[in-house]
């Protein structure tokens, strides 16, 4: 969906809050994420739990009222992506990458904001991976509705 | 070496900053959602941004959203920079080895796109939507990631 200037400005504000949270929760530091994945610091559960508490509450209230977003006129809806084997297959590949590196997309962008220039290795890798899969799936010609932009 | 320290102290760095940071992450998603109805995940930026430089049809489908996704990502960088400016005492540079970041990044780039989302799209937005698909994805990547990280640690790869 394209956004007008006000919508774009709001996305910037949301992104700043999101990135601030990734910094404050220290998820932008791969070492902290790896400490969770190596079972020496379970704090990440509180990061995800805290974030989900907010989104679940806001999504539930907004959708129950059946209203529309003021800046786009979009009907408030939930994020329900269709289930197929790709969900598990892709999740497994992502899991190996996450477990190896301690980074994920949002946290990697945030890491740049901390001055962590070495994260560019990770971000570069992500673009390469996204490009390769896009190319491969173009040749295969899959028409999975699931990958529809959200 | 794998240790059982977590049983002694599962939260050696406390809980507060994890929880507060998480609330801000949720607030960022909620802000965008309430204003625009968009449920924003972080990983689609990778594909949508490729549409600026690649004519592959797969990426072109993201043209309508690619501009705001760049803005969202710039916001994430700025927000973390704001945190660093106010709270961190020095610039953070990771000790995790570049090959781990790069190889992990490639797998993440493939996996999040094939699996339709990442820690924010499925983990925060999808679970917040009570989506069974997202719960299945998160359970999968969580278990595999823990297994991978433990294996890497056991092999003596550090940091």
Automatic annotation (TrEMBL), chain A:
The keyword Transmembrane applies. It comes from the Archaea. Keywords: Membrane, Transmembrane, Transmembrane helix. This is DUF6691 family protein. The chain crosses the membrane at residues 7-24, 44-62, 87-108, 114-132. InterPro entries: DUF6691.
Automatic annotation (TrEMBL), chain B:
It is found in: Cell inner membrane. It comes from Halalkalicoccus tibetensis. This is YeeE/YedE family protein. It is a multi-pass membrane protein. The chain crosses the membrane at residues 20-46, 67-88, 138-157. Its main location: membrane. One of its GO terms (cellular component) is plasma membrane. Keywords: Cell inner membrane, Cell membrane, Membrane, Transmembrane, Transmembrane helix, Transport.
